[in-house]
Amino acid sequence: MIAKPLSDTIEYCCRENLDLYDGADCQTLATQAAVSRHLRLLPQSKNHTNNSPNILVQLCEDNYTAWLLDSDQKHLEITTQPYLAPIWSEAQIQAAIPQIIQFTQVAMATPNYYLWGGTVSPNYDCSGLMQAAFADAGIWIPRDAYQQEAFAKPITFNREQLDFSILLPGDLIFFGTVEKATHVGLYLGDKKYIHSSGNEQGRNGIKIDVLSLEGDTCIQYYFKRLRGAGRIISSYQLLPK
């Protein structure tokens, strides 16, 4: 167990999977930090927003900010090796795509349900599954669907003619509104993609669906909201502190 208070000049490592939240009250899950992920305390934590003892942190691998329960400090340890962002070429990433696809298929075969904020097995949200799959291969991408869309290299396809031949297995498929991507899946080829979708309009977990005007309610729901696609050609690099 580390000594209190935490320092914003020290990098920490997670000794257990940790839930992180979107506000100082730690009521709504924002994301999760798997064992061995690195994080740092943000100076704003010292303000103790709303008199909360909880801690605002930033995950090192994707620069994602969220709140850690004060009681979870005991699951952190000071790292002896600060996080160093890996460098991946586009060719290296393409070579890792089979492993990335296999990760999602193993996750699908494991009993699961959709969990908003989920990035740790067995329960994921859509972008959490994508991030975890790439991270399993050592490649880091941003956390949320809209961030992943902005990070990926855009790929243009002919939606009207249902021509997706330009897409490669491992490309990301984005869905949402005109303004913003709100959902993401991993392209498998032959117009199929794997994704974790919610209970209301989706499968309540990880399933394979198809890009098509025909099919059940879930297939049609997401196809009508298809925004585009992108290819991961690099691993996320840290922003300046």
UniProtKB/TrEMBL annotation:
PROSITE patterns named in the record: NLPC_P60
Start and end residues of each NlpC/P60 domain: 94-233
Gene Ontology molecular function terms on file: cysteine-type peptidase activity
One record GO biological process: proteolysis
Transmembrane residue ranges: none
Keywords: Hydrolase, Protease, Thiol protease
Family: Belongs to the peptidase C40 family.
The protein's name: NlpC/P60 domain-containing protein
